């Protein structure tokens, strides 16, 4: 397995353009650990597939280099990069049996037959297709075919990395959950470097050790699920991670205090930002307390989602969400309070000051 270096990568499709906004990838410069499980998470069009395809060699970057364990592979074609890839839709041989489909990548590399048999049996059991081993793939459902694709990605143990592009899209929800956990287990067992593209935060957060959040052609944060939840570096991360996402409220900083919605709150620290500067505060809906004291809010809607209620309200001229326990009271004259510790401060969308 390999450490992956993304060295000042930029990419524009078609004509190379000088305006930064015309780049599908603006500037990606990171090192990803050998054996890491990375999820690329972000909304449609943010550049996830472009980055994955640059790693695999399907797309040549307009600028920058890509290195596997220090070796520059930028100009190597896909087949010489020693990677396994699993795409959104199954890529398998319909006329071969399930067993032979899984054995193919190993036999192709002249792996001894007893080893082929051992690996194939292990993988076929993991994907739940042992009973189908001798069946031709053409008779299988799309769901089963995708499991074979997944198995083919995992069957080799000598690859530099395994790249997944939304591989569970066609799998039913229960099986999705099962395969995700098995993928995690296999990753722990074999320690392969995995890069997994998804726009589904649950998928990214349950599977990856490091989640790479992308927005508009850039990596805006790489972190553990807890880091992304508690200390989002960019307002987009706060909004995208969590359900509902972080509230972003306009405010004005004055030394150690912040003024918003006509109220002044002592932050307990002086953020590195000019006094009087307009800024935004990020507060998770889970960290806002709704009660009879604090700053007034106007409730517009209460959504009952079982064990919790999501209260939609207007605060400081901004719509906010507040998560309340299912038994939580909703006062007739509602007010809110929150701890300083749960506040993140942003200037130009980027987090500033105090830890
Ligand atoms: P999705 O989740 O919808 O697959 P993504 O995050 O993977 O999106 P990309 O597919 O990498 O995003 O696309 C990034 C940007 O590059 C988008 O603006 C897209 O329209 C553009 N793009 C992608 N592929 C091409 C292409 N072959 N030619 C021109 N533009 C492209």
TrEMBL record:
Location of the protein in the cell: Cell inner membrane
InterPro entries, alphabetized: AAA+_ATPase (IPR003593), ABC_transporter-like_ATP-bd (IPR003439), ABC_transpr_FbpC (IPR015853), ABC_transpr_MalK/UgpC-like (IPR047641), Mo/tungstate-bd_C_term_dom (IPR008995), NA-bd_OB-fold (IPR012340), OB_MalK-like (IPR040582), P-loop_NTPase (IPR027417)
Membrane topology: Peripheral membrane protein
One Pfam family here: ABC_tran
Domain ABC transporter, first and last residues per copy: 4-241
Cellular component, GO annotation: ATP-binding cassette (ABC) transporter complex, substrate-binding subunit-containing
GO MF terms, alphabetically ordered: ABC-type ferric iron transporter activity; ATP binding; ATP hydrolysis activity
Keywords on record: ATP-binding, Cell inner membrane, Cell membrane, Membrane, Nucleotide-binding, Transport
Database matches in PANTHER family: ABC TRANSPORTER ATP-BINDING PROTEIN, MALTODEXTRIN IMPORT ATP-BINDING PROTEIN MSMX
Family, similarity comment: Belongs to the ABC transporter superfamily.
UniProt name for this protein: ABC transporter ATP-binding protein
Organism: Pararhizobium antarcticum
Taxon lineage: Bacteria, Pseudomonadati, Pseudomonadota, Alphaproteobacteria, Hyphomicrobiales
